[in-house]
Amino acid sequence: MFAIFKKEIRYFFSSLIGPIVLILFLLINSLFIWAYSPNDYMNVLTSGFATLEPLFTLAPWMYLILIPAMTMRAFAEEKANGTLELLLSRPLTEFQIITGKFFAYFSLLILTLIPTLIYYFSIQYLSHHSIDNAATLGSYIGLLFLGSSFISIGLFASVITKNQIISLLVSLLFCLLFYFGFSLIADVSGETSIGFIIQQFGIEEHYYSISRGLIDTRDIIYYFCLIATFILITKLALSSRKW
User: Fold this and answer.
1) What is the chain written as a DSSP string?
2) Is the pTM value of this prediction over 0.90?
3) Chain segment 148-197, per-residue pLDDT in tens
4) What is the pLDDT of residues 38-72, one digit of tens each?
5) Domain residue spans in the chain?
């Protein structure tokens, strides 16, 4: 599994996609948070609040595009190049291959967030340490869970096709559905018990719940179940090649 992990990390930084993803994420966030923004609320300097909420509002939408772009080649490229069979012939289980790729992309997810700590320390300094640390920590944890969910979806999308563009589109569609789709369906259903149940299937509901700084076990269970489900069906799709 560690060999797969190192291979994915090495490939990420040896291609243009690695630097592009990191630079785009930081550049766009910096521009919206510190310079240009569609409204005063999204700009830290003009909002008047000591909070990183603009980052945590914008980042999920950026991950909706960046993570599918990162994961689209995970299995699709292996299948297109004919190297997947070689990979499966090694003394590794399918689960080890999938989890090796998953943790590689999870490490890259953490790497995109580490530089944003500069925003945190800057706001701490400017606000004389009046930032809400609990909400900030909760939001970072929420982003890690959200990003992990998108990674598991991206791996599934990549394993069912050998075309990276199709993988990107399928991943983007599923990420949109789970992040925004269920909330939209719940809004259409109105304020009913059915609407509430539908909303609980969406990532957005649980992300903003954790972002309040109160870690609810129901939110943790939801994310673990969602990630485990997509890893499981990714394994089933990979195993189906033997049938």
Assistant:
1) -HHHHHHHHHHHHHSTHHHHHHHHHHHHHHIIIII--SSGGG-HHHH-----HHHHHHHHHHHHHHHHHHHTTTTHHHHHHT-HHHHHTSS--HHHHHHHHHHHHHHHHHHHHGGGHHHHHHHHHHTTS-S-HHHHHHHHHHHHHHHHHHHHHHHHHHHT-S-HHHHHHHHHHHHHIIIIIHHHHHHHH-SSHHHHHHHTTSHHHHHHHHHTT---HHHHHHHHHHHHHHHHHHHHHHHGGG-
2) yes
3) 999 999 999 999 998 999 999 999 999 999 998 888 887 776 667 787 78
4) 666 666 666 667 678 888 888 999 999 999 999 99
5) 2-242
Q: What is the dihedral of CA 124, 35, 66, 8, to 10 degrees?
A: -60
C-alpha distances (whole Å) from 13 to each of 107, 126, 143, 147 are 13, 34, 22, 19
